[in-house]
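User: what does the whole thing look like in 3D?
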Amino acid sequence: MAWDTQETRRRLKEAAVAEFAERGPAGTTMARIAERAGINKERLYNYFGDKQSLFETVLTDELDKLAAGVALGNPGYQDIGEFAGRTFDYHADHPELARLLQWEGLSGGPVADEVNRTVHYQDKVRAVAAAQREGVLDDGLDPAHLVFLLIALAAWWFSVPQLAAMLTGADPDAPEERARRRAGVVEAARRLAAPR
Amino acid sequence: MAWDTQETRRRLKEAAVAEFAERGPAGTTMARIAERAGINKERLYNYFGDKQSLFETVLTDELDKLAAGVALGNPGYQDIGEFAGRTFDYHADHPELARLLQWEGLSGGPVADEVNRTVHYQDKVRAVAAAQREGVLDDGLDPAHLVFLLIALAAWWFSVPQLAAMLTGADPDAPEERARRRAGVVEAARRLAAPR
DNA sequence: CCCGTCTCCAACCGGACCGTTGGAAACGGG
DNA sequence: CCCGTTTCCAACGGTCCGGTTGGAGACGGG
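Assistant: Here's the predicted 3D structure for the full assembly of 392 residues, as structure tokens:
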């Protein structure tokens, strides 16, 4: 048994992400998180406080990862379709995030880390507005709406998988199906925003 | 005390819709549903069985209402934008439905009333495919994808209200804001599907 | 007026879960 | 070798919840 408190925290958090994403805050039990991590429950309380605090910690952590992940590959808005495609890819590769965000939205409580997230999104709106003024993007839609709807296109597949299954009848994990969905999202994004 | 079993069922179901939409299946308690309806808890079990059955009953009921509501105003696909607009309106007027569907999707269990719902959606896909063949709709997108993305445009606002608030900074219940959002949805739908 | 149905009330049981506690090992720095 | 920290283990108190039960009124059809 290594003597590594950071590793312990990491394993607990990893287990918490999985459990919260799967069952939501109400359905998750602290005991199961600990069990999944192979670490005693009492450590969980010692490090992260009660369940609510743990959920917020987990969510803001994952949002930081998202911000880091998309900030890397963001060379302006030369191709709005590829932006939507990358958002689609991120969600496909990290299905927990969309679920955590949905649980948060449904739970109706206060929004975790609201200030930073608001700033982050408003930055995107400003960037889109600038691109519209320059003619790089079509300006027929309000910039905030455009950002919102682009996210919708990319995230909707992971938000209502039952509906996706009923409409396409396909296995969402099959590579071809994923590629088809991505291509549709890219095309739709261009239709929404590409200059005419 | 009226002698009306149908009214009793109705009141229980009404309370169940509200509670389930607000707190989700896991967070809802049978006692609270009964209390909200002003009816004894034991009636609830007598009429609807256990919690899982009650949730499925409630959800399929609401989906039937939706089907009835949109089937009325569906005179072909002459204006795809108005179709999206009406879907937006329905969700705006019945915010519980989107939440119930999300809870269902997150809960990951079996899809309630799957057969009927699948048929219903496949009908829509066929109608869109026909419209594409006739040139009434642009055929650059797969018909199933198009239906799926049109629903996304309309429902996304009610699916992630926290995100909507951070992006627009507006009160979603204000009439002007609702009108602005609806107009954006209609415009976006036309961009996705209107023939060029 | 009577009988079957509907309803209420109150209480109960078994189980789950949150968060805590007491104690005892394992470990590493000095 | 010793002391403080980290970890484990087991158990507990209190609460809540799902689902059931027993008994007793209210109502309407015959």
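In plain terms: Residues 1-49 of chain A form a domain with the Arc Repressor Mutant, subunit A fold (CATH 1.10.10.60). Residues 1, 3, 5, 8, 39-40, 42-43, 46 of chain A lie near DNA strand D (CB under 10 Å from a C1').
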